[in-house]
Specification:
Structural class: mainly alpha
Shape: globular
Largest sheet: 4 strands, mixed
Strand content: under 5%
Number of domains: 2
Helix content: 55-70%
Distance between the termini: 64 Å
Radius of gyration: 22 Å
Order of helices and strands: HHHEHEEEHHHHHHHH
Number of strands: 4
Length: 297
């Protein structure tokens, strides 16, 4: 067995994936402000193919090897919905992950990790809107499908390790110019972080688009759009109130920053209006889930 060629192929795959992410970032930047719900271009398809490959699955397993699932198993209802969601978006049964309830304050609603989908106790609450619950789990299932947490590491790694290699290939620094190596590593690292952030914006939209269409229910998506709209309206009203205070105290300043951070963070996801477009598409095709179909009878 020729291990040298095997290692070269692995490095080549990582480099190719990094280049695809970079190309995707450039395309998204050019289209910023006029993005559509269609992310099925050649670059998007190539990224999806590599992200769902056996090689990327092994990389994901390696990254999560020392991670333990924390929290407690979610309710039976949520477990069934998670299995339905993962199957619907195309995850083979042997690659499906459990769903866990966590009290981690960093988990805002739900989060797809390498080995599990984590939800807050609020999402597992029986009073949580069924449509929003389904959309949330379908969204997170798309992250599991594409190994998004592990894939998002690649731009930073490629920048950190690739920049010195590129420096050596193009410049071949000697003497004092060898200081260019650590400089290029630092520059590559921060350049990779910028690309990583842009790629995250892309895959969050992808998870919304693919996941919400996969729900196969216009009522679920419409419920989610309404809940999102109400939440954003509530946060914006709170922010306006806080900003209207002439001499805010420290707690009010901190609260305003939290509101601003929430609003900014939601910009990487589909807006309520964009979700309503998906709902309208599903309604036109008479797509509705079993629960909402029974409720309509």
């Amino acid at each position: 067995m020729n291990y040298g060629n095997k290692n070269i192929r692995k490095k080549g795959n990582v480099a190719l994936f990094g280049l695809l992410i970079l190309a995707n970032t450039i395309v998204c930047a050019q289209n910023e402000g006029s993005q559509t719900l269609n992310q099925k271009g050649f670059i998007g398809k190539a990224l999806a193919a590599m992200a769902t490959s056996n090689a990327m699955h092994r990389w994901n397993e390696m990254c999560g090897r020392w991670m333990n699932n924390s929290g407690s198993p979610a309710s039976e209802e949520l477990q069934k919905l998670a299995k339905e969601a993962q199957t619907a978006v195309g995850i083979p049964e042997e690659r499906q992950v459990p769903i866990m309830v966590t009290d981690d304050p960093d988990v805002d609603g739900a989060m797809a990790d390498r080995k599990a989908i984590y939800v807050s106790k609020y999402v597992d609450d029986s009073d949580y809107l069924y449509g929003t619950k389904r959309c949330t789990l379908f969204h997170e299932s798309v992250h599991i499908k594409y190994h998004d947490m592990s894939c998002s590491m690649i731009p930073t790694m490629a920048g950190f390790f690739g920049a010195p290699i590129l420096t050596r290939a193009l410049i071949k620094p000697q003497g004092r110019l060898k200081l260019l190596y650590p400089i290029s590593m630092i520059a590559g690292f921060y350049s990779g972080r910028i690309v990583q952030k842009k790629y995250r914006d892309y895959y969050e939209r992808r998870a919304d688009i693919e996941g919400h269409y996969a729900t196969g229910c216009h009522v679920c998506v419409s419920e989610h759009a309404g809940e999102l709209r109400n939440t954003l309206d509530y946060i914006n009203q709170g922010l306006e109130t806080l900003k209207s205070i002439e001499n805010p105290n420290d707690e009010q300043v901190a609260a305003a920053k939290v509101c601003e951070g929430f609003i900014e963070g939601k910009k990487r996801y589909l807006s309520p209006d964009e979700n309503e477009i998906i709902a309208a598409d599903l309604k036109r095709d008479n797509k509705v889930c079993a629960l909402h179909e029974n409720q309509a009878k």
